[in-house]
C-alpha cells in the first residue's frame, strides 16, 4: 500500500485517536467577507479541537485576492513555516479551501514534518470520525476520494521529492505512471461507492414508505451544527439521539414518530448540521441524507440564539437549503437555547423575528407553543370530512386516529361516525363513506 493509499484506507480519522496534534491556523481577510474573520477562525479552532488538534497559534493576512501559487503571499508563507517551527506544530490549517497546487506548494515551503490542510479536509476528517452507519461511512469515503483525486499529482511529487531529496530520476517516471494507475483506481472506487450508495438510498426510501405509509406529514430539523437539533428531537419525542458539545455530532439521520396532542402522528427527522463554507463535495456525497430535508413537508430551522454569530449562521443555512433545492418548503425558524439569553436579548429577538418560535431544548420552555405551530402547519391543507365507517373497516378508524385530526366521534348502529380534518393524501381513503359533504 502506498503512503496516501493508507490515508484513504484508514481515513485521516486516526488523528484524534492518537495523540493530540498541534495546529497553526491561517485566515485571510478579504474585502466583503460575510463572516467576521475572528469568529471564522474561532470556529476553525473548534473544528480542529473536534478532530483532535489544538490550535497553538493563529495568523492572518489581509489580501485583495488569494495568491494563485500559495494562497497567502510568498513572504507570508515563509513566515507561517517559521511560526510552525517555533510552535512545534504538526499541521497548518487554512480557513479557506486551497487548490491542489496551492496545497502542494505550501507543503514544499513548510518543514517536511508539517502537513498543510484546509477547512474542507478538516471537516472531512470530522465526518470520518463521526460516521457510524454504513451509508454515512460510504458518503464520507465518496467525499474523501473526490477530494483526493485532483490532489494525487501533488502527493506523488511530494513523495518523490521526499524520497530522493528533490532529485528527479528514473523513479520519478515510475511515479508518474503509477499516478495514472492510481487515478484510475480512485475513479473506479468513486464509481463503485456511488453505485452502492444509490442502492442503499433506494432501499431506504422503500423502507421509509412502507414503515410510515406515504402521505404522513414529515417534519425535518435543519440548522447550523451545534444549534441543538438533536437535543430538540430528544425533548420532543423523548428519544435519545446522541447530542454533545462537539461540531457535527450527528451525521446519520434519525426519524421518529411523534404524536401531536390532537392524536395525529407525524414523523420528525434529525439530520446532519450545516456550516459556513460547507464543502460542495460533502453536500453532493450526503445527498441521500439531505433528501430527508428536501422530502419534508415542514422544516424546523433550528438556530442557536445564544451564538453571537447567529445571523451569518442563519444565512449559511439558507444558502445550503437553496443549494439542495429546499427553499420552497414551509419553514419555521426556531430559536433554541433561549435559557442562555437575558431578558433584553430575548425581547429584542422576539421583536425582530415575530414569526419565529423561541424554545429551550434544555429547560423545555416554549416547546408546547412550538408543538402547536407544528400542528397548525400539519393541518394547513386539511379538508373537513364527515364519515360513517362500517364496523368491519377498523383499519379506516385507525387511519383516522393516527393520521387525521378527529373533531367528534360517536358509535352509531351502522358504524363509527367521525368528523375530522384529513390531509389530502388520506381524504381519498374515506371517499366511499362520506356521511355528508359539509361538516
Ligand atoms: N443551554 C442550552 N444548551 C443546549 C440547548 N440545546 C442544546 N444545547 C447544547 O448544545 C450542544 C449541541 O447540541 P446538539 O443537540 O448536539 O446540537 P446539534 O444541532 O444536534 O449538533 P450537530 O449534530 O453537531 O449538528 C450540546 O452541548 C447541548 O447540550 C438549550 O436549549 N440550552
Ligand atoms: Mg445533532
What does this structure look like?
Keywords: Cytoplasm, GTP-binding, Magnesium, Metal-binding, Nucleotide-binding. It holds the Pfam family MMR_HSR1. The chain has 439 residues and is α/β, with parallel strands linked by helices. The chain folds into three domains: 3-185, GTPase HflX, N-terminal domain (Rossmann fold); 215-378, P-loop containing nucleotide triphosphate hydrolases (Rossmann fold); 383-436, Alpha-Beta Plaits. It has 17 helices and 14 strands. A six-stranded mixed sheet has the order 6-7-5-8-9-10, sandwiched between helices. A four-stranded parallel sheet has the order 2-1-3-4, with helices on both faces. Strands 12-13-11-14 form a four-stranded antiparallel sheet. Strand 8 (298-304), helix 13 (310-323) and strand 9 form a beta-alpha-beta unit. Residues 1-16 and 160-173 have low confidence and may be disordered. Bound molecules: guanosine-5'-triphosphate and magnesium ion (MG). Residues 223, 225-231, 243-245, 247-250, 273, 336-337, 339-340, 360-362 line the site of guanosine-5'-triphosphate (GTP).
Amino acid at each position: 500500500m502506498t503512503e496516501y493509499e493508507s490515508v484513504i484506507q484508514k481515513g485521516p480519522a486516526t488523528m484524534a485517536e492518537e495523540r493530540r496534534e498541534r495546529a497553526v491556523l491561517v485566515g485571510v481577510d478579504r474585502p466583503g467577507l460575510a463572516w467576521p474573520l475572528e469568529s471564522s477562525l474561532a470556529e476553525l479552532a473548534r473544528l480542529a479541537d473536534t478532530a483532535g488538534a489544538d490550535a497553538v497559534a493563529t495568523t492572518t493576512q489581509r489580501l485583495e485576492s488569494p495568491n494563485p501559487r500559495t494562497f497567502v503571499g510568498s513572504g507570508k508563507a515563509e513566515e507561517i513555516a517559521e511560526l510552525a517551527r517555533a510552535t512545534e506544530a504538526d499541521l497548518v490549517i487554512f480557513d479557506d479551501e486551497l487548490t491542489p497546487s496551492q496545497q502542494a506548494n505550501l507543503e514544499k515551503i513548510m518543514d517536511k514534518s508539517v502537513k498543510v490542510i484546509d477547512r474542507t479536509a478538516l471537516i472531512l476528517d470530522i465526518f470520518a470520525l463521526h460516521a457510524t452507519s454504513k451509508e454515512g461511512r460510504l458518503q464520507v469515503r465518496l467525499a474523501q476520494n473526490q477530494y483526493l483525486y485532483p490532489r494525487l499529482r501533488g502527493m506523488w511529487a511530494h513523495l518523490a521529492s521526499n524520497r530522493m531529496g528533490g532529485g528527479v530520476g528514473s523513479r520519478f517516471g515510475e511515479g508518474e505512471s503509477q499516478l495514472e494507475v492510481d487515478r484510475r483506481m480512485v475513479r473506479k472506487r468513486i464509481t463503485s461507492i456511488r453505485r452502492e450508495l444509490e442502492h442503499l438510498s433506494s432501499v431506504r426510501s422503500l423502507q421509509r414508505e412502507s414503515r410510515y405509509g406515504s402521505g404522513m406529514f414529515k417534519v425535518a430539523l435543519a440548522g447550523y451544527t451545534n444549534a441543538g437539533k438533536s437535543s430538540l428531537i430528544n425533548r420532543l419525542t423523548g428519544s435519545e439521539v446522541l447530542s454533545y458539545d462537539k461540531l457535527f455530532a450527528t451525521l446519520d439521520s434519525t426519524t421518529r414518530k411523534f404524536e401531536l396532542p390532537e392524536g395525529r402522528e407525524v414523523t420528525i427527522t434529525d439530520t446532519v448540521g450545516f456550516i459556513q463554507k460547507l464543502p460542495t463535495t460533502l453536500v453532493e456525497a450526503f445527498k441521500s441524507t439531505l433528501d430527508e430535508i428536501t422530502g419534508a413537508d415542514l422544516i424546523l430551522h433550528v438556530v442557536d440564539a445564544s451564538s453571537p454569530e447567529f445571523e451569518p449562521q442563519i444565512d449559511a443555512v439558507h444558502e445550503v437549503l437553496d443549494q439542495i433545492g429546499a427553499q420552497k418548503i414551509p419553514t419555521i425558524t426556531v430559536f433554541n437555547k433561549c435559557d442562555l439569553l437575558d431578558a433584553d436579548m430575548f425581547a429584542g429577538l422576539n421583536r425582530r423575528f415575530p414569526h419565529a418560535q423561541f424554545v429551550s431544548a434544555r429547560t423545555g420552555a416554549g416547546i408546547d407553543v412550538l408543538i402547536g405551530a407544528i400542528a397548525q402547519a400539519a393541518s394547513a391543507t386539511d379538508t373537513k370530512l364527515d364519515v360513517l365507517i362500517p364496523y368491519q373497516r377498523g383499519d379506516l378508524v385507525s387511519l383516522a386516529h393516527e393520521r387525521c385530526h378527529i373533531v367528534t366521534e360517536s358509535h352509531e348502529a351502522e358504524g363509527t361516525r367521525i368528523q375530522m380534518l384529513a390531509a389530502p393524501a388520506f381524504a381519498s381513503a374515506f371517499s366511499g363513506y362520506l356521511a355528508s359533504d359539509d361538516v
